[in-house]
Amino acid sequence: MALSLIFRGIYSLEATLRRVTLRSARDGSRRISRAFKMRVALLEASHWHVPLYLAALERPGVEVVAVSDREAVKGPGIAERFGCPQYQSYQDLLKRTKIDFAFVFGRHVEMPTIGGALIDRNIPFAIEKPCGTTASSVATLRARAESAGVYVAVPFIFRVSELINAIRKAEGTLPTRLHHASFRFIVGPPSRYIASGSAWMLDPSQAGGGCTINVGTHFIDMFRMLTGNDVTTVAAVMNSRGHGGEVEDYSMLVMTASDGTVGTVETGYTFPSGKIEQREFSFALSSDANYYRSAPAGMLVSRRRDPDESRTTTVSVGLDTDPYYGVFVDRVLADVRAGVAPVAGLSEAEAVIRVLDAAYASARLGGRPQNVS
Known about the structure:
The termini are far apart. By secondary structure, the chain is α/β, with parallel strands linked by helices. The chain has two domains: 2-156, 3-Layer(aba) Sandwich (Rossmann fold), CATH 3.40.50; 158-319 and 349-371, Dihydrodipicolinate Reductase, domain 2 (2-Layer Sandwich). 36% of the residues lie in helices and 23% in strands. The strands form three sheets. Strands 16-15-14-13-9-12-11-10-17 form a nine-stranded mixed beta sheet. A six-stranded parallel beta sheet has the order 5-4-3-6-7-8. The chain is globular.
């Protein structure tokens, strides 16, 4: 009996210390002491990006304590890897497990509900883009998080990339004045989502769309970040000529920013991906100071004010986007520990999905330009 009381007292003291070190910062995010491992959960783990997070979650100071997976495809293996329980639903996980932070995946249409459950419990989290399937659902989630003062991060991973850092260094600062920008990101076929346990990605009622809402989000955010301006109009064409499914497998957006900068975003599910090459990623940007182009070895930067004939240089940057998910994990967990704002959050996600809503409306109207509300 005495030994039981001692263990109970130790547990009570540890719990008290953890509560003391979880305090609200001015912005409402919870600051977590480095003295404790951060207890992390993965919600709805059958998602093609989850494997890109896992190595970072094995670092010191982090403990994955629970996994949920309604699809029951990847979750059991991930739970075994971390030696933690696996639940069929995130609701059961949240009822039975105390956590400090959550990484939210799952069906796009359910993301606002999952995020809302975490906000109700005052648990900080990162949520995969697009965070919902409509601007109104993401706006509601953003307003709830702001009202509750809960930290929410969104993995717009180019914000933590070598590419953005190289452009910032060349320009001197970001945002900057661009003349125009174009991005092409063509990934593998829709079948890869079935293989990853995310067959719902081929159902527009669950995913909200195809390559535009899935892949185009990153480049709408990147365009806004580079220019520092909102997108005011967008015209779009989409089709499913590659695979004939219900969601588009090709998309082209033409955006106009509030300062008149034009940006194009071309995405698709039509690249014949394999182990050696997974996707095509190319871009071109024109600013007052430089012209930027993607290249096999990274990025070509052509300087306008350099009188030397050899004014184009190659900057070595990683254009494979997969490693940046680990960088994102490190960044958000450090931010939560420090009680600082995320690198990107629901405000940025809401701005992006407002462009997406207008883009889908434009495509339904045969490419007629639409105002972004």
